[in-house]
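Progress report, Aim 2. The chain analyzed during this reporting quarter is listed below.
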Amino acid sequence: MLYEFDLLVVLIDRMTRLKKQGEHMSKYKGVIVGSALFILLSFVFGFHYVKGEMIKEKVANFKMPAISVTTEKVNKDTWDKSLKVIGNIHSNQSIDVTSQMSGQVKEILFNSGQRVNKGDVLVKLDDALLKSNYKSQQSKVELARVELMRNKLLLRNNSVSKNSVDKLQAQFNAEGAKLEYIATQIDYMKVKAPFSGSVGIRNIDVGDFINSSTAIVELEDKSKQYVDFSIPELYLHDVKVGQDLQFYSEATNDEVFHGTISAIEPSSESNTHNIELRAMANQAVPLEAGMYVDATLITSESDTIVAVPSVAISYTLYGNTVFVLDTSTKKASEHSSNDASPFYEYKVAQRTVEVGPKQGGYVGVVSGLKAGDVVVTSNQHQLKNGGWVLVNNQHPLITDKSTKQSN
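Predicted structure tokens for the chain:
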């Protein structure tokens, strides 16, 4: 029993020691884990702090690259006040030749594209029935004439009444009128040119049956040519007979022709409120009737304006603006290809301008610019006020103006 009791005491003592050692080890492990966690968090937060500071430094030192643009120096120019209009060519006379009678085409006496003179017979219709009626009517006229002459002789002897002779005279006149009517119908079976000119492509063939609504061929008289166009009624008092009209067409490689205002419509069109005008060409124009032309109507004497390429102007609801180079900020660009022809960078300033008339690819600026300013003509949507641009005019803007100036 003593031995067992001693064994039990030893076991209890050993268990007590093990328990104390376990508690001591748990505290040690906790300290280690806590220390490791502290070091990890310090590293994470330190990394993010250093990263943020580096980003701030990079952002503070970052410079937006200069935008590559083209430019043009603006100058004062002298422009005539004018209206841009669209017109169309008209011949002196132009018709679709038709017949006054219905009938079958018997003979065609013209070729497509031929020049014809007034009165030339273009088409003959079958008139055999009319000629037969003409001969029959001639017999009736002759009979009426004989009856009239016989009764006039009898009237001298008072063998017939004056009233009978008058009736025979009226009958003779009526029969003669019928004969003239048939003769006119026979003449109308020959379709003639109403005026001199050139015919187009014929629309009929021998044997066709035509009537008064059948278009035989188009006939054009180009001895005179006109340009018909319209302007808003607002500009009526700016136009008058005798003013010069310049017009051109891509069909003639934009060759400029001149005309003179010859007529102004006395009333305004009720739907469009436009006034119709006609100008007579001063020379023969190699254009066909109905072709469209671009025209410029000079309305007053010249004005001096600052001419700016239309592509340089940004149109917005808040005003029209342009970007202008600040020449005082000029510096050589690091992107220069060589020292002989370096590129230069500038700051740009955005200006509000008031625009006036337009001419070709240019706009007249009334205020906001002065002669000698250099405006940006490309990539304006990428720019902002005070931003830097790289001027590259190796491929300058192509406009209607013959003189190009670049910085």
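The longest strand covers residues 75-97. Confidence is low (pLDDT under 50) at residues 1-5, 401-407. These observations will guide the mutagenesis work planned for the next reporting period.
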